[in-house]
TrEMBL record:
Residues 259-282 are annotated as: Disordered. InterPro entries: Cadherin-like_dom, Cadherin-like_sf, Cadherin_CELSR1-3_9th, Cadherin_CS. It is found in: Membrane. This is Cadherin domain-containing protein. PROSITE patterns: CADHERIN_1, CADHERIN_2. Residues 1-31 form the signal peptide. It comes from Daphnia magna.
């Protein structure tokens, strides 16, 4: 391809136009050729070619660096200059051999690329117009590589480890996977301006170029050994001439190298056009000690600071001249200088690491040749030279203070936030590096109210340290300081203010102005006008809706007499009041705020109803009846006649008076005079009293009325009936007057002896009997039963003390009248002395390991009788105690079974001593036997297995659980200490308190490392010998949300890669997005969302909670043959507040959805003598948009003479030897092309030989 410099030099400098021509002698694979006009037309400095490239998206966004390749001859480079923007300028025209082809190669690279095309190599040939189209001589037609070469870096996921090698040594690609997108974007600008590409083919197996996007893809899934892979491509350029010379075509080549690691930087020694000659064997000794030197220098030092000194091996006696040029960045040239004599590099200015942290310098050492000056001609000796690269790393000094993202922060937080709630995260950045950039945060004013907050020194997270209360402090102003961690004397800091507004939470109850309200309302109030009787007021310390109050009646208003205004709190009467029905109302009033949830408070309103006189007196009963004894004194109160009035105060004051009834007397006259009655009435109290003596024989029945009058003149009456009762005026009389009886001294108390009887002629005499004489020591008692007196034994009798009793018995009525009788009682003799224990009660102590037969104690009893009545036999009585027995004659208590204090710590025996009298008498006593402890029981835990839960973020020293063991022994034998077995006190995550048995954390826990601990604890007593018991402790670590989700991707990859076939319907599943959270429970629930990425709108996520994953679904149609084969979006997996973001890469997989396309074509062959072609002469020009299709070719008809041979898989056509003749031959054939998925298609082809 030729580029002709056609416009004038001035217009070329302005627009940089080129003429694209296809020379007839430029064969396939030739480099891009620039034809330059004569020097008079194209002066020095003219732009002759633009090598600038775009990025994958067709934009000039990449920072390409353009340099001459080391394969470009130095002589050629001396005529041309390569600019930073990729433009090639003419420096000077060649003086000799102007018709030579001047081959060049331009290297473009972008070292910032980590994945994708990072290096492009472009071939270029310059020819001057004066040469025309004449062929070059053999020297000038040197063989040069004319293909465009691309180097791309594959992502880590394309590599695979084999043979346990820690490095990736295989490249693995999937079918339809994109390798390099938009290959035509890497052609130079001068080509892209006038040319388009088509007919891309690959001569490398399993590699193809998709035509619509011009993307290099893999046609099969495979793994290839090695860390690099190559693809050789062919394409066709169709170029239009800017001066209207039509369209020309040319076949081109491109080599693509895919690598798993970045390539080494290109040789950039020739970027500035310095001359360099090949190093001969003689020059080998003249070289630097090492090819690359690395030095470090601190920033912000004064100029003149020495960095490094370089020296060559075997310097010549005359000396060496050192020079230096900046590599990669021209700024380095101004910052350093080199001593030409010594090779010492020093700083020329202050260095700033933040502007540029590394510099690359190319140092050249050139020997000084004797006689070089003044000697001319070809005999002047060429000086030797050597080069080395110097990498200078700029060390950081703490010259930048931290800088907050904002000078003033504002945030808000609810007052109900729990302690430890994150309020705000402040961020400060420091342009320094290392410890100088490590920022720690603190609160400058943490005192007073600001003690409620704290800040994490590392993260800058401000959180609450104390409970907040908006009603106390509604805002806080914090001053946050960020201090870097440079040397103490050099540390720098910055401050920022944080304003925290406390949001109201409905945490205050409404408060009433009074604890209880009291009002008085007349019962005849005009309720129809709804008069206001009380005003209730309450306040709420909250603000906003939380302080808006609504009033309501919630109690005491069962009949709806009152209503309350919900807004003002005014209480009004809405129904009539009645003092006599309800004298007061205790209303419960609620004030409720508008918070959510709301809070309320209640108060009481006491409404007292004021009385008016609207009720007459009323007696409690209309008839009062009472009895009175005939001999009561004058003024005796008989009965109270009482009336009541529903009114109050004076309206309820009642006075009473007697109103006699008109009755007929025995003489037939009516008696109506009040003075004739023997009764009167107290006008205030209503008590009826006697006013003269009563005589039952005169009149035993009286009846009259009582009139009650209230303070308002209203009256009521009631009838009173009084009965006169008889008086007791007769004495009781015994008959007979003397009684005799005999009783044995062994009669028990309560034994009846005899009955005495008295009578009384009065009505209902109700006689009571008593012993009024002769009852020595109270041995007897008398009781009244059915009007008679029953004499019984009250105390035990003793024949030796009293043998006879003479009792005087008295009978008395209720009126105090009485009579007496004499009773003679004789006592008969009996066995009266029982045995008695001498030292009761008894107690003794015996060791629990005492052998059987051990005498514990001897008991003894005495009897005051003689003979058999005094002979005592001992025995055990009460509850059976098999461990002991007693000797009947001696009273010795001995052991009969082994003892166990832990089972029974003591025994209470009941011992009986019985004499041999008739009947026998006995005595009992208790013997308390205590068992002394011996250490025969090990400690026993309350549980054989303890289980406890502790959160994994528990602080060191947190109490986990308490184990408790008991020892049935006593004293030191039962005192227990605890130890944790099989654990190093320093290494164990837990420690056990020896005294309390409390298990505490000894180290920070991590559930994700260890979710459960199985511990063994031991309890040891302090007896001799020591005994112990053990129990297991299971500590389950409860999860805390401290681990962010992690996506299920290989460690070497930074993204999730998914594949989907093209033409899948919208809504099709691309794949599952799965992230694992090492936490558990709700902390392990992962929430998925699409948060960004260039193709975020093309997909949607559907959570699948049952599997913990999310399905990625399509929202657009996908077409592999379009320009997009790969989509990227950013997916977030969150377990609030933790989260992880990952790039999801969706690759479209090709399917066979396009038919091969082939038009009729003509093949014309010219046969020259002795030049008959033996290899392929053409290829069937079929086009199939599916790059993965395997096409099959066959001749259907017209080739019966076997004039051609058609390769069934490649489509290449070779000629039969039958065509090697000088006779013109013409044939029409039909060729079928099939991709195995669609039907074969027939195409006509004409083959003609001339």
């Amino acid at each position: 391809m030729m580029f002709r410099k056609h416009l004038s030099a001035q217009s070329w400098r302005t627009v940089g136009a080129v003429l694209l021509l296809l020379s007839h002698y430029v064969g396939p694979g030739s480099s891009f050729m620039v034809v330059v006009d004569e020097p008079a037309v194209t002066p020095a400095g003219s732009i002759i070619f633009h090598a600038a490239m775009t990025d994958d998206g067709g934009q000039n966004g990449r920072q390409w660096t353009y340099v001459w390749s080391s394969t470009s001859p130095e002589t050629t480079r001396s005529f041309f200059h390569l600019s930073r923007d990729g433009s090639v300028r003419l420096k000077r025209s060649p003086i000799s051999r102007p018709c030579s082809d001047w081959p060049l190669r331009i290297e473009a690279y972008d070292p910032s690329v980590r994945t994708g095309v990072t290096r492009v190599s472009l071939p270029l040939t310059v020819r001057f117009k004066s040469c025309g189209n004449q062929l070059m001589d053999g020297h000038r037609r040197q063989r040069v590589d004319h293909s465009v070469r691309l180097t791309t870096i594959l992502p880590d996921w394309a590599g695979r480890e084999v043979d346990d090698d820690r490095l990736f040594n295989e490249i693995c690609l999937r079918r339809s996977e994109l390798i390099v997108p938009k290959l035509d974007a890497y052609l130079p600008e001068s080509v892209r301006r006038y040319c388009r590409t088509d007919s891309w083919t690959s001569s490398t197996s399993n590699r193809a170029v998709e035509s619509s996007g011009v993307d290099l893809v893999s046609t099969e899934s495979e793994c290839r050994p090695g860390r690099t892979g190559n693809a050789h491509l062919h394409y066709r350029l169709n170029c239009s001439s800017p001066i209207g010379n039509g369209v020309v075509e040319a076949q081109r080549e491109m080599d693509v190298t895919a690598r798993l690691d970045p390539p080494p930087p290109p040789d950039i020694l020739h970027r500035s056009g310095h001359r360099q000659r090949r190093q001969t064997a003689a020059d080998a000794s003249f070289s630097f000690e090492q090819p690359v030197y690395v030095a470090s220098v601190p920033e912000e030092r004064d100029r003149g600071l020495q960095v490094i000194s370089l020296a060559v091996r075997n310097p010549p006696p005359i000396g060496v001249m050192y020079s230096m040029v900046a590599v990669l960045d021209a700024r380095s040239q101004k910052l350093f200088s080199i001593d030409g004599q010594t090779g010492s590099i020093t700083t020329s200015a202050r260095l700033d690491r933040e502007s540029m942290d590394v510099h690359y310098l190319r140092v050249t050492a050139t020997e000084m040749v004797a006689g070089a000056e003044g000697s001319g001609g070809a005999n002047r000796p060429q000086p030797r030279s050597a080069t080395a690269t110097v990498q200078i790393n700029v060390e950081d000094v703490n010259d930048f203070p931290p800088t907050f993202e904002q000078a003033n922060y504002e945030t808000a937080i609810k007052e109900s936030a729990s302690i430890g709630t994150a309020v705000l995260t402040v961020r400060a950045k420091d342009q320094d590096a290392g410890a100088n950039a490590d920022v720690h945060y603190s609160i400058v004013n943490p005192f007073g109210a600001n003690e409620a907050f704290r800040i994490d020194a590392k993260t800058g997270v401000i959180s609450t340290r104390l409970a907040l209360d908006r009603e106390t402090n509604d805002q806080y102003n914090l001053t946050i300081q960020a201090v870097d961690q440079g040397p103490v004397q050099e540390r720098q800091s910055a401050t920022a203010s944080v304003h925290v507004q406390i949001g109201d939470e409905n945490d205050n109850y409404p408060q009433f102005s009074e604890r209880t309200y009291t009002v008085e309302v007349a019962e005849n109030v005009n309720w129809a006008e709804n008069p206001i009787v009380a005003r209730i007021r309450a306040t709420d310390a909250d603000v906003g809706p939380n302080a808006i109050l609504r009033y309501s009646l919630i109690g005491g208003n069962t009949q709806g007499h009152f209503v309350i205004d919900s807004l003002s709190g005014d209480v009004a009467v809405v129904q009539p009041l009645d003092f006599e029905t309800v004298r007061s109302y205790r209303l419960v009033i609620r004030a409720q705020d508008g918070g959510n949830p709301s809070r309320s408070n209640t108060t009481q309103l006491l409404v007292n109803v004021r009385d008016v006189n609207d009720n007459a007196p009323r007696f409690y009963t209309s008839l009062f009846q009472e009895s009175v004894i005939e001999n009561v004194p004058i003024g005796h109160s008989i009965v109270r006649v009482q009336a009541y009035d529903a009114d109050d105060a004076d309206n309820a004051l009642i006075s009473y008076r007697i109103v006699p009834l008109a009755i007929m007397t025995p003489t037939g006259n009516q008696q109506t005079d009040e003075d004739q009655l023997p009764f009167g009435i107290d006008p205030d109290t209503g008590w009826i009293v006697t006013v003269r003596d009563l005589d039952r024989e005169e009149n035993h029945h009286h009846e009259f009325e009582v009139l009650a009058t209230d303070g308002g003149g209203k009256t009521a009456t009631a009838r009173v009936v009084l009965q006169i009762q008889d008086q007791n005026d007769n004495d009781p009389v015994f008959w007979p007057k003397i009684y005799d009886a005999v009783v044995g001294e062994d009669a028990t108390p309560g034994t009846p002896v005899l009955t005495v009887t008295a009578t009384d002629r009065d009505e209902n005499p109700r006689l009571q009997y008593s012993i009024v004489g002769g009852n020595v020591r109270g041995r007897f008692s008398v009781s009244s039963q059915n009007g008679q007196g029953l004499i019984s034994v009250a105390q035990p009798l003793d024949y030796k003390q009293e043998k006879r009793f003479v009792l005087t018995v008295q009978a008395s009525d209720s009126g105090g009248r009485s009579d007496t009788a004499t009773v003679y009682l004789n006592v008969s003799d009996a066995n009266t002395h029982a045995p008695a224990f001498e030292a009761a009660p008894y107690s003794a102590t015996v060791f629990e390991d005492a052998p059987i037969g051990t005498t514990v104690l001897i008991v003894a009893a005495s009897d005051g009788d003689v003979g058999d009545n005094a002979r005592i036999t001992y025995g055990l009585s009460g509850e059976l105690v098999p461990e002991f027995s007693i000797q009947p004659a001696t009273g010795a208590i001995i052991t009969t079974k082994p003892l166990d204090r832990e089972r029974t710590s003591g025994y209470l025996l009941t011992i009986t001593a019985r004499d041999n009298g008739n009947p026998p008498l006995s005595d009992t006593t208790d013997v308390e036997i205590s068992l002394a402890d011996v250490n025969d029981n090990p400690p026993v835990f309350q549980q054989t297995t303890y289980t406890a839960n502790v959160p994994e973020d528990a602080l060191i020293g947190t109490s986990v659980l308490q184990v408790t063991a008991t020892d049935a022994d006593q004293g030191f034998n039962g005192r227990v200490r605890y130890v944790l077995l099989d654990s190093d006190a320093n290494a164990s995550p837990f420690t056990l308190d020896a005294t309390s048995g409390i298990l505490r954390t000894n180290k920070l826990l991590d559930r994700e490392s260890t979710a459960k601990y199985d511990l063994l604890v031991q309890a040891i007593d302090r007896g001799t010998p020591e005994l112990s018991g053990a129990a297991s402790v299971i500590v389950i670590i409860d999860d805390v949300n401290d681990s962010p989700p992690s996506f299920n991707i290989p460690p070497s990859s930074d993204r999730v890669r998914l594949f989907i076939q093209e033409n899948s319907p919208v809504g099709s599943k691309v794949g599952d997005i799965l992230a694992r959270d090492p936490d558990e429970g709700v902390n392990a629930v992962v929430q998925y969302s699409i948060i960004g990425g260039p193709d975020a709108e093309a997909f949607t996520l559907v959570p699948r909670p049952e599997s913990g994953s999310a399905e990625l679904l399509t929202r657009i149609d996908l077409d592999y043959e379009s320009a997009r084969k790969r989509y990227e979006l950013l997916v977030r997996a969150a377990s609030p507040p933790l989260r992880t973001d990952v790039i999801v890469e969706v690759n479209v997989v090709d399917v066979n959805d396009n038919v091969p396309v082939l038009n009729d074509f003509r093949l014309v062959l010219n046969n020259f003598r002795n030049y008959f072609p033996l290899g392929p002469v053409a290829r069937v020009p079929v086009f199939d948009a599916d790059v993965n299709d395997q096409l099959h070719y066959r001749v259907v008809s017209g080739n019966s003479a076997d004039l051609i041979h058609l390769n069934e898989t490649s489509g290449y056509i070779t000629l039969s030897s039958n065509l090697n003749t000088n006779v013109p031959i013409s044939a029409a054939m039909e060729i079928s092309v099939s991709d195995l998925s669609f039907l074969s298609f027939l195409f006509k082809s004409n083959v003609r030989q001339q």
